[in-house]
Amino acid sequence: MAARHRPTPAHPPVPKGELRDGFKFRSGRLSLDLPATLAGRLQDVPRDLLQAPADLGRWLVAAGLATQMQEPSAEELTQARELREAIYRLGMARARGESFSARDRAILNRWAAEPPPAPQLGPRGLLWTGAGVRGQLAAVARDAAELLGGPFAERIRNCSQEGCALLFVDTSRSGQRRWCSMAGCGNKAKVAEFRRRQRADTR
């Protein structure tokens, strides 16, 4: 009698793309994607995409740090927001050539010292296991410390598009990238320039 073949267990796909479950991933680095969860930073009333603990759980999955939804605590949500803002201010300081805030460095370093999750090679790519929400935030903090103190620190940029406050790492050969996303802000800028030229031609 032929042996039965068990079906291969389904694995969640590795998240890809710039937009995942309502969050933007355009920076090229995990640590700079966390600050993008505060939308409309330059507006009078920014919109926090991490409104509830479940939102943080969704972001961790979208970021590829968790394979399934978790239940972060309210305290972990508050801590994630604090880490997010510290990373943003540190990134802006680096982009502007300014000194780092001692307080923000302390927040980042405290999180980077936490035990991180373990990287594992899954059937569809990199997975992170263990350590829970705190460990996943530690992985974000470690990435930020390595970025801000490493060779790509000089490539941290602030998007040039009016109204966009996203930070990104310029990995272009020329080092002249201006927008967080060619498909997003880059396209908007090109459309605006095209319309400006059209108006000029009709005068």
UniProtKB/TrEMBL annotation:
Zinc finger CGNR domain boundaries: 155-198
Gene3D superfamilies in the record: Jann2411-like domain
Pfam families per the UniProt record, alphabetical: ABATE, zf-CGNR
Region (Disordered): 1-21
Protein's UniProt name: Zinc finger CGNR domain-containing protein
Natural source organism: Myxococcus llanfairpwllgwyngyllgogerychwyrndrobwllllantysiliogogogochensis
